[in-house]
Design goal:
This protein is α+β, with helices and mostly antiparallel strands. It is built from 13 helices and 21 strands.
Length: 580
Amino acid sequence: MEPGPTDHGGWSDSSARAVLQLMVESVAEMVGFEVAVLSVVLDERLVTVAYTGPEQYREYLEESDPISVLDSVLPAAVEWGPRLRFIPAGTHGELEGHWVLIEQESSGTPDAWHIEDALLALLTDDGGRPVGLLSVDRPVSGRRPDDRQRSLLERYAAQAERAVLTAFEREELIHQVEHAEAARRLIRSSSTRAQASLEAVLEHTHRPLVEGFGASGSWIQLLDGSGYARSHDGSPVHISDGVRRTSEELAPRLWADERPLLVSAADPEQPRHVRQELAELDLSSVLAVALGVGTECVGFLALTRRSQDPPWSQVEIDSALQIGHDLGAALMTARALERERNLVRELQQLDDYRSQLIATLSHELRTPLTVIAGNLELLGAVDLDETAVRHHQAMTRGTARMERVVEDLLLLAQVSNPQYPLVRRSVDLRAVTADVIALVDSAARAKGIDLRLQLGGGDLVVPGDESELDRLVGNLVSNAVKYTPAGGTVAVSLTSGGDDVVLQVSDDGLGISEEDQIGLFSAFFRTTNPDALREPGTGLGLAIVATIVERHAATVGVHSRLGEGTTFTVTLPTAQHRPE
């Protein structure tokens, strides 16, 4: 008679199953039985993992039974050895679970094997807990086994017990590695989340840590004082200041030595306050590793277990050490990104303040300048002597220059203000450019400059603000005329390039050195070329151009060689392909 559980879940380690199957076949052949079955305890159920015997009986072994079915069997058994239990026919009543009656003709002798006889070997771990069951049936001799067969079967049962325990250990090892690797993958992924804050990384790594390591909780303490301690369900855990200070002092030493720290509440060599802290938290052990990258330690990771949890394996300890590197890299990346975001925020605030300051000062300067300009205009209508006329003309020129500076500052503050949104309308750049050329033409003629305009065919309409685009074109063309000597040439072209409209302003004037091109679009930038410095300017024209270009999702480039001329190229998206 055989118990009838069959494979009910199985193991991930197929090699272990193959070894157990070979052992079962050896037991049947060497001891002299036609049938041998090996079942193991999985989730408190007896599950068959190896069988040898007639195929017609295999189908009866397809149901698993709870381990409790042995409670009614073992009391009726006769002990034939440390593991062997013989249950003679007629000594038991109706048995719980699935039992298979394997027919066999009786030899007619007093020691003949009966169809209801059962011979089992109970396999246990070091603590006496059942881990499996080895059973045999249908002896080749037709008789119950003699002393020699019993002794041989006992030895095979001992080997089977060790093989089952080893298989369980291998299976547990495989699960530990899988869980630890899954935790490592999840933690590595957190370092690729550029948007994740340091707090988010600490929060998101808790669950993979406790699930991957079968821990009751996790605690990450950074050397900057921040920390994150949670139980398995995510509820906060209080860590005393003394333990925090101890961890911050210990972490750099652990990182330098590349070693873990294993603390047990039952270890009398541990400091009393540490054992007391563990007892208050209902913990039995703590596995701790340092976190860092390279030679820099950034913190401390502690994983906890309770008294009912298994001890830490070497695989888990090694995996935790590796996670110290992975999590350290993730935390350092998050910390660097957080610092960068804070710096960007501070720079943005500073830039907003600068824009507001410029706008305020420019607005406050405009009113007195208007008064000065008005009074100078009135003085111009009065008869003045020659000396007074010279002073009047100088003041008028200075006032006009200050008015230009104020207007440029107001425009730069306006287009740089994120609270001043761009209202897009269809703008015909053909008309805008023609108006600019008409306005600058008189100044070009006065210097003897050949000002040329070439307008290409096709659609030259772009989405944007007409006044800003007018200022963009005007600044580029007026600069080209300003820095081109008499007799030179300034060429302006406007062409359609499919999804873009391309504006080019070229001259054969002074040119710009490579060093000056680096800061060319910065506010208040002035060239180091003494010939160019003779021309008056505020240093704001190209900064305004660059800001308008950015607001219109366009691009601007410059190609120039000192003494040979300059070409500015602005590429703007067309109305049909404007970005959202």
